[in-house]
Amino acid sequence: MRTSAVATPFLITVAAVVPAAPTKAYASEVLEFAAGAYAGQLFRITVPAGDADYVANGLDDSESVRDGLSLAVTALVGSVDGYDAGVNPSNNKPTLIVADLSGGGPFACSVTGPVGTLTLYPAIAAPATTGTILGPTYAPLGSLRVGSAIAGIQGYTNIADAVPGRVRETDSQFRARHQIAQRGLGGGSPDAIRAVILADPAAGGGGARFCGVEYNPTGANPDAFGNKDRSVRIIVDQFADAFTVATALFRAKAAGDNTNGPELVVIQDFVGDDQDIYIDRLSDLWIAADIEVVKASDWPTTGDPLTQIRQDVADFIEGLQPRNIGVRVTDLPIALFPTGMPRGVESFRVRLGQSVTQGGPYAYLDYYPAPEDDAVLASVSMTSRQKARAQIADITAILV
Question: What's this model's pTM, rounded to 2 decimal places?
Answer without folding.
Answer: 0.50
